[in-house]
């Protein structure tokens, strides 16, 4: 097993590295080192990448409904703190980012799941 170019780009993205030659070289060097050690470690890292991609899709789908404080279905009504649904997904994503960084022995450059500066948790009501 080896890391593909899309895997390396995903690693750069999820660990928050900028698009510069030094960051790309660092990621490629760590990927090569892990590949030389163990194919199982490559599988583990790729599993974290796939899980992060799934979580990103779930975040994209959940974002329009993040302000909702309740949902009803045949099982009853659930009440949520505003933003709770996104927080659960983001916490899980952060866990996988940490595991990916640990597996590759890279530092997390920037938390891509942090709230953007200046954003507040306001709920708009009509």
Unreliable stretches (pLDDT < 50, length at least 5) are: none
| Helix share bin | 55-70%
Strand order of the largest sheet: 1-2
* Share of residues in strands: 5-15%
Helix count equals: 4
Order of helices and strands: HHHEEH
Structural class assignment? mainly alpha
Mean pLDDT: 83
* Count of the domains: 1
How many strand units?
Answer: 2
Radius of gyration: 18 Å
Distance N to C terminus: 53 Å
The biggest sheet amounts to: 2 strands, antiparallel
Topology overview:
Elements: H1 5-14, H2 21-37, H3 39-62, E1 70-73, E2 76-79, H4 84-104
Antiparallel strand pairs: 1-2
Helix pairs in contact: 1-2, 3-4
Q: What does this protein structure show overall?
A:
The protein has a two-stranded antiparallel ribbon with strand order 1-2. The protein has one domain. The protein is about 55% helix and about 5% strand. The model has no long low-confidence stretch (mean pLDDT about 85). By secondary structure, the chain is mostly helical. The relative contact order is 0.17. The chain is globular, with a radius of gyration of 18 Å. The chain has helices at about 5-15, 20-35, 40-60, 85-105; strands spanning about 70-75, 75-80. Helix 1 (about 5-15) crosses helix 2.
């Amino acid at each position: 097993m080896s890391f593909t170019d899309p895997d390396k780009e995903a690693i750069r993205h999820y660990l928050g590295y900028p698009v510069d030659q030094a960051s790309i070289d660092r990621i490629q060097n760590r990927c090569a080192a892990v590949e030389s050690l163990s194919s199982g470690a490559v599988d583990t890292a790729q599993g974290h990448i796939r899980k992060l991609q799934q979580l990103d899709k779930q975040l994209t789908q959940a974002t329009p409904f993040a302000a909702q404080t309740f949902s009803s279905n045949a099982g009853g009504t659930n009440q949520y703190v505003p933003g709770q649904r996104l927080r659960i997904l983001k916490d899980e994503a952060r866990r996988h980012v940490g595991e990916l960084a640990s597996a590759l022995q890279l530092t997390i450059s920037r938390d891509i799941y942090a709230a953007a500066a200046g954003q507040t948790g306001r709920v708009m009501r009509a």
